[in-house]
């Protein structure tokens, strides 16, 4: 992740419909949602939703997959994590006590503890079957 990619991701989320879309996609992980269903849920014309999804995809925080005649969109949690980690990379000048409240707020949404491979932890819907 670099500065330009981070700016693109933040700019993509700096619009009401795109932010609502991204939140819906995060909630729907790992199944994803078809573009038409997203437009319907947010009461947005399909061509407008298509433009928003293109912006989110180009920013690296949404991915798409064709399934038959539908295109299913999913939050790109890896891209989103990279954006957040870029912002927090030098968190609080190396003073972990200052970042602790932020980490505590993020922890409940994640099932698995952070690790070297997954610094934020696993998303609540990324659980593996027992």
UniProtKB/TrEMBL annotation:
Top-level lineage group: Bacteria
Natural source organism: Martelella mediterranea
SUPFAM superfamilies: Winged helix' DNA-binding domain
PANTHER family named in the record: ARSENICAL RESISTANCE OPERON REPRESSOR ARSR-RELATED
InterPro entries: ArsR-like_HTH (IPR011991), HTH_ArsR_DNA-bd_dom (IPR001845), Metal_resp_trans_reg (IPR051011), WH-like_DNA-bd_sf (IPR036388), WH_DNA-bd_sf (IPR036390)
Protein name, entry field: ArsR family transcriptional regulator
Keyword vocabulary terms for this entry: DNA-binding, Transcription, Transcription regulation
Pfam families in the record: HTH_20
Gene Ontology terms, MF aspect: DNA binding; DNA-binding transcription factor activity
Key word Transcription present: yes
Residue ranges occupied by any HTH arsR-type domain in the UniProt entry: 1-95
């Amino acid at each position: 992740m670099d500065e330009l990619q981070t700016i693109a991701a933040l700019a993509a989320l700096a619009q009401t419909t795109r932010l609502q879309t991204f939140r819906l996609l995060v909630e729907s992980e790992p199944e994803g949602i078809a573009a038409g269903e997203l437009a319907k849920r947010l009461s947005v014309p399909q061509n407008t939703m298509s433009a928003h999804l293109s912006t989110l995809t180009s920013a690296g925080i949404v991915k798409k997959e064709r399934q038959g005649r539908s295109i299913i969109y999913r939050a790109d949690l890896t891209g989103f994590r990279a954006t957040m980690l870029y912002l927090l990379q030098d968190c609080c000048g190396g003073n972990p006590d200052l970042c602790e409240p932020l980490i505590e707020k993020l922890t409940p949404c994640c099932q698995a503890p952070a690790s070297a491979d997954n610094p934020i932890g696993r998303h609540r819907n990324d659980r593996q079957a027992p």
